[in-house]
Design brief:
Elements (H helix, E strand, L loop, with lengths): L9 E6 L3 H13 L3 E7 L3 H10 L4 E3 L2 H5 L6 E4 L6 H10 L3 E4 L7 H5 L10 E3 L7 H11 L6 E11 L16 H17 L5 E7 L9 E7 L5 E7 L1 E12 L3 E5 L10 E6 L10 E5 L4 H13 L9 H20 L3 E2 L7
Parallel strand pairs: 1-2, 1-4, 2-3, 4-5, 5-6, 7-10
Antiparallel strand pairs: 7-11, 8-9, 8-15, 9-10, 11-12, 12-13, 13-14
Helix pairs in contact: 1-8, 7-9
Length: 344
């Protein structure tokens, strides 16, 4: 980093000892040359102390507010239960901290909009790590420059089996359920690859009748001009994921698109439709990366003014507008219109 010898790494604070923080984000912070984990706070002080010890985090606070009051913290990562995201993002912004918040950033678009004024003074972004994969960038570039012809179909799936009976994602008041937890990824991906907002949506939701949350949701997003995104998400099925783009002159398949491996290269299959009657995909290999590290590097560099923000609060609000419409559609059993907004 000889050309950046005066760069000051971002000092990160972590609000909560969530699994995603411990397994992915804190290790990424340690691996980053642009930031490092300086402090952590958790509801359970013992968990905070253990996490700090396990991951070599210098400071531990007995409350989220105490960490936010530390003037030596530049940015915070928020992996709290969904219903707490906006509350603590606002508190962090009031203390001058930049905010990287886990998805979904809020439970409704109206809640997310409360962060718009704060985002004028600090950087606030939703933590969609797949958008930092080079192969996502490559696939989107293929679509945008017409290599696939007119892209008309996006198909996606993201499922896993949630076997923890105490998980907050089982409770509606905490923002639980499949659409909030994993459906927001598929909504984001649809908007990202079409570079547009859906005009109307349709959703079919299934729950177990006891927890009050959806555990299987299937969706159609109508982007107009014959462009459709179709996806299913679930918290009660075997782990599976895929993403497929199909155009008039080609298609792209991304294996393991959302939860990508960080210990081996990833691939993309591109078929240029040269054979009208059969598929002959060409595999493109991308070097091994950690998408969480890419996310931390990017946000840290944004904080230091070294990079332009990729997606900010406007994108997060737009994503939640689609999620809102999907819940309405599921309740009504009908198509629901979406408010158009730029995908950023």
């Amino acid at each position: 980093m000889s050309d950046e010898k005066h760069y000051t790494p971002v000092r990160w604070g972590i609000l909560g000892a969530a699994r995603i923080a411990k397994e992915h984000v804190i290790p990424a912070m340690h691996a980053s040359q642009y930031g490092y984990p300086k402090a952590i706070a958790a509801r359970d002080q013992d968990r905070a102390l253990k996490t700090a010890k396990d991951f070599d985090i210098p400071f531990v606070y007995d409350s989220y507010d105490a960490l936010l009051s530390d003037s030596n913290i530049d940015a915070v990562y928020i992996p709290l239960p969904n219903h707490l995201h906006v509350e603590y993002a606002l508190k962090a912004a009031e203390k001058g901290k930049h905010v990287l918040c886990e998805k979904p950033i809020a439970l409704t678009a109206a809640q997310a909009e409360k962060l718009q004024d704060a985002a004028l003074h600090v950087h606030i972004a939703e933590a969609f790590m797949p958008r930092h994969q080079p192969r996502w960038h490559y696939a989107r570039d293929l679509a945008m420059r017409g290599a696939l012809g007119e892209v008309r179909i996006l198909q996606a799936c993201l499922t896993f089996y949630m076997n923890n009976p105490t998980d907050f994602r089982r409770h509606p008041e905490y923002g639980g359920g499949a659409l909030y937890d994993v459906g927001c990824y598929a909504v984001m991906a649809s908007r990202y690859f079409f570079a547009a907002e859906p005009q109307r949506v349709m959703a079919l939701m299934q729950g177990d009748g006891t927890e009050g949350v959806d555990n299987l949701t299937s969706v159609i997003l109508d982007f107009g001009c014959g462009r459709h995104a179709l996806f299913s998400v679930s918290t009660v099925l075997a782990a599976a994921q895929h993403l497929h783009l199909i155009g008039s002159q080609g298609s792209v398949d991304l294996p393991l698109p959302f939860i990508a491996p960080n210990d081996r290269p990833t691939t993309l299959a591109f078929d240029d439709a040269s054979d009208l009657y059969a598929c002959h995909p060409r595999e493109i290999i991308f070097e091994t990366i950690d998408q969480y590290l890419c996310e931390i590097d990017h946000f840290s560099r944004v904080v230091r003014g070294e990079e332009v923000p990729g997606f900010g609060i406007a994108d997060a609000v737009a994503n939640m507008r689609v999620v809102d419409a999907l819940f309405v559609s599921a309740r009504s059993g009908t198509w629901q219109a979406c408010q158009p907004q730029s995908a950023g």
